Amino acid sequence: MIAFVARRLALVVPVLLGLSLLLFVWLRLLPGDPARALLGERATQEGIDRVNHLYGFDRSLPEQFLLFLGRLARGDLGSSIRTGQSVVDSFLERFPATVELAVAGLGLAVVAGIPLGYLAARRRGGPLDHLSVGASLLGVVVPVFFLAYLLKYVFAIRLGWLPTAGRQDVRLDATHPTGLYVLDGVLTGEWDAAWDALRHLILPAMALGAIPLAIIVRITRASVLEVMNEDFVRTARAKGLTRAVIRRRHVMRNALLPVSTTIGLQAGALLAGAVLTETVFALNGVGEFLFTAVNHLDYPVLQGFVLFIAVIYAIVNLLVDVSYAVIDPRARQR
Amino acid sequence: MSAPTAAAVPARAGGTWGVALRRLLRRRSAVAGGVIVLLFTVIALAAPLLTPYEPGSAEWAGRITPSSVPGPGPGHLLGLDSFGSDLFTQLVYGARQSLVIGVTATGLGLLVGALVGLLAGGLGGWVDTLAMRVTDVMLSIPALLLAVSVAAVMGRSPVAVMIAIAAAQVPVFARLLRGSMLAQRGLDYVVAARSVGVPTSRIVFGQMLPNSVGPVIVQATLVLATATIEVAALSFLGLGQADPTVAEWGRMLVKAQARLESAPHLALLPGACIAVTALGFTLVGEALREVLDPKTTR
């Protein structure tokens, strides 16, 4: 198992390097003049030249590429053309909000979705089955940001049960060693801060988790139905194994394989959803930051974003493969 | 073609597709979905007939105050939006944007993807290998990143949104068509056709393709649903239509955010339009999948 993880980890490095460099070249080949975007329509040629020189845009592409590589090795992604702030710092500052939201949303979807899908399959055609199939259909057709609005309107504005926006009540003045506010509260022992952060997280996580939840319920249901018809399940039943053992060791273990693949495939959608959800609940994650960067052709920030996404993709795929190996011993051989 | 098969075809009136259509019409969910899609199509086409106003006119901006937006009343079926345009007009013209962009994007993705899939599945060999490696790379790029890059190249425009949505679908369609064509390649009828000397192009277009399009059509219908949502999502993020006078459901939702407390219907109505349109396409697509897939016939 450890050997498998190590082998799989070694594969990440070249993939990441290749992907990030490919995207670097691609982004730098985009038309559009960042200096002009920065200085505005009435910029003088002299000013444009100076900005281009300052950021190295006047050098040849291979030169810029090598410079980028060298800085990358030192953990320096340059600074935003627009604000002058370091790209790495800006991302590190905003990224925990996005991560916290994504983890909470996906966690909710997995924790609720797998049991629901299983129960729906076990009582096929029953009320719970119809309900979960119907609800999962809704989860697919309602846009994330609209669901976010609905939740915000009902639970925050009308009922007043939960906060409308933000990540934590600023008056709490909590300390944030990791930037993941709920975890921070637990680590520092500031329980009221952790509770407050959790309350802020509930609605965004529900909005973001809805689509993956719907998908996980559908896949789990279909996959459990399929596995339950397999010969080995009948054999297990014939051997007189208890229901719990059959469920845990025979049905779920096999049924979860397609589910874990699906969860991995959701990573991209989850990211897009997190960006949308952040906007509605003013969570100050990478979402807003990214779109100002697009509108200002802020290349260093865009590159940084691409790199971050590449890293996350690689990590998520690694986790999916590892979870595969945990569920299915055969996968460790490859 | 043997004589008995040829004789059996007219008896089934309309062949496989006629059978599929009749089975589809027997499903309540498919009919409901079809009605929804038809309804929004009619609304989009007949927009100028349904409302006396122009979209984005902001004619009644004077009646908008920071704390209130006039609700339903005489002359304005659903009241005004936060910029002083007629809300009903905005919704009706919004259907045009969503459907035109969504359908074009899906069509574009389908066309390019099917072409790639056709070449890969029909020719095989290095064409297949190359096409699959390229789609691998495309699938590994998150759709959002793709949309952001397209917007960075082309600026904020509906065309950029179309291309971004289409590009994300190309590898999906390509793999689907290739997969089902590969499944056909080993079948007896293809081997038989080849052995009697039918030219490759006729085998591919005349026999393998018609037998492989089922899953692709199902997928296209389902993509229409996600495309409707994505059009709104991208304009929600400010990547779509830059012209403020064009009515667009996603942007109507953005504008509604500040007034969520005082005028929730400004968000509710465009949001519901998006969801219902997507629901229509999804119902049709799901039913189509069940009808065309022999494994799920119940």
Automatic annotation (TrEMBL), chain A:
Domain ABC transmembrane type-1, chain residue ranges per copy: 95-320
TM spans (from-to): 9-29, 101-121, 133-155, 201-219, 255-281, 301-327
What Pfam families has UniProt attached to this entry? BPD_transp_1, BPD_transp_1_N
Question: What does UniProt give as the signal peptide span?
Answer: none
Q: Indicate where this protein resides in the cell.
A: Cell membrane
Coiled-coil ranges from the UniProt annotation: none
Q: How does it sit in the membrane?
A: Multi-pass membrane protein
Q: Which domain of life is it from?
A: Bacteria
Record-linked InterPro entries = BPD_transp_1_N, MetI-like, MetI-like_sf
> Is the Oxidoreductase keyword given for this protein?
no
Q: Does the keyword NAD belong to this entry?
A: no
- Which key words are in the record? Cell membrane, Membrane, Transmembrane, Transmembrane helix, Transport
Q: Which PANTHER family match?
A: DIPEPTIDE TRANSPORT SYSTEM PERMEASE PROTEIN DPPB-RELATED (PTHR43163:SF6)
By sequence similarity, the record places it as follows: Belongs to the binding-protein-dependent transport system permease family.
Q: What is this protein called?
A: ABC transporter permease
UniProtKB/TrEMBL annotation, chain B:
- Look up and give the membrane topology term: Multi-pass membrane protein
Q: Where in the cell is it found?
A: Cell membrane
Task: Look up keyword Endoplasmic reticulum and say if it applies.
Answer: no
Q: Which domain of life is it from?
A: Bacteria
Transmembrane as a keyword of this entry, yes or no, is yes
Q: Which organism is it from?
A: Streptosporangium jomthongense
Domain named ABC transmembrane type-1: residues: 95-285
Which family would the database say this protein is a member of?
Belongs to the binding-protein-dependent transport system permease family.
What the entry lists under Gene3D superfamilies is as follows: MetI-like
Stated name of the protein: ABC transporter permease
Q: Which UniProt keywords apply?
A: Cell membrane, Membrane, Transmembrane, Transmembrane helix, Transport
Under the heading Pfam families, the entry gives: BPD_transp_1, OppC_N
Q: Which PROSITE patterns match?
A: ABC_TM1
Coiled-coil region(s) at which residues? none
